[in-house]
Amino acid sequence: MIVAPDAMLDLVAPLLPGALLADSARSALQAVTRGLPRAASGIALECRLEENPRVDFLMYLLARSGGPQAFLRHAPALESRAWRGVFDFCAEWAEPASLLHDEVPALWLEFDVRGDSVVAPQPLPFPCIERHIGDEQPPEEQDEHGRAVCLDILDRATSLLLGRPLPCATFDTAARLARRLPRRGRVLHVAPLASRGVDALRLVATIPRDELPAHLDRIEWPGARPELEPLLAAMVPANTRMGFHLDISDRVLPTLGLELHHAPGDPRWRPILDELVARGVCTSDKRDALLQFPPYARLALPEHRAASPVSTTLGIKLVLAPDEPLAAKAYLGFVPLHPLLG
């Protein structure tokens, strides 16, 4: 299903209490989403969990729903390098003969929302480069051929989005990170950070929790290792799979993001959120609001005669950055499902 981001935002905003979506943040989001193309298969809101009320916006395009074609039909008339890169990426993604068409299931576009600008900010594009991400039972391991294909997609996707070849040194760092993952680890997404004025890539990967410290050692991660292991012990149960984010250029950079995912309402959220409140990185009001976030809703989507089911997702990202305190963000996702009546 394809929806307009602004219409979807208007429908889901009443589901969120003011602790997560203040009136000022909602107004800023509405100003931004009015300029975005009707090409979304779902949206997400990025909420900071400390006192900061700022909320950023994400939309995703799904290949099997015709997302790239919808984007090409409704692409904004903006002449920035970032938007041109997304247009070029979608044009190739829509081509049946291209590598991207067969291997890329989705593209996330993230927007940093500041103030009440009526112009859509520059998109931060996150193509998914793992074709099995949406499978009910994805392969447990990735072999060398799978890693090679993943790196080919990374190279082509980032070159299109940047409008120039990816620097060889950056590709070499990405290849080192991917090839040194354990067999049960895999790279899921890649994002050029040029729209934020940074000459680097962000890689999002998944790995068994117990294997993350050794992997970071293998790739010579220069971050705060003494802070990492107590955080993992407090937040992530042993023998579970988790996501992590790393920024890279000609080397691995020190900022590390850790992803935690459970269904909304899962009892495992309570101890995690209590720990974040105890560490001073989440307010008690936001903890309580996240614990009440609904796992499901029925909403009257535009152009549909009956209310449609909308599933929700909840994730938290913890960010370890040099010379900065631990930060936490919640990602509240909304995915409209096919209605019974059109």
Summarize the structure.
The chain is α+β, with helices and mostly antiparallel strands and 342 residues long. It contains 11 helices and 11 strands. The protein has helices spanning 5-12, 23-33, 67-74, 81-93, 99-103, 144-162, 168-179, 212-218, 225-235, 269-278, 284-291; strands spanning 42-48, 55-62, 106-111, 124-127, 186-192, 201-208, 241-248, 252-262, 296-299, 308-320, 327-336.
Distinctive features:
342 residues; alpha+beta; eleven-stranded antiparallel β-sheet; 33% helix; globular
Fold and architecture overview:
The chain is an alpha+beta fold and 342 residues long. It has one domain (5-336). Helix content is 33%, strand content 25%. The chain has eleven helices and eleven strands. The protein has helices at 5-12, 23-33, 67-74, 81-93, 99-103, 144-162, 168-179, 212-218, 225-235, 269-278, 284-291, and strands spanning 42-48, 55-62, 106-111, 124-127, 186-192, 201-208, 241-248, 252-262, 296-299, 308-320, 327-336. Strands 1, 2, 3, 4, 5, 6, 7, 8, 9, 10 and 11 form an eleven-stranded antiparallel β-sheet that branches. β1 and β2 form a beta hairpin. α3 (67-74) crosses α4 and α4 crosses α6. The longest helix has 19 residues, at 144-162. 38% of the residues are buried.
Helix-strand pattern, N to C?
A: HHEEHHHEEHHEEHHEEHHEEE
What overall geometry do the principal axes of the alpha carbons give? globular
Task: Look at the helices and sheets and give the structural class.
Answer: alpha+beta
Oligomer: single chain
Q: How many helices?
A: 11
Share of β-strand residues:
25-35%
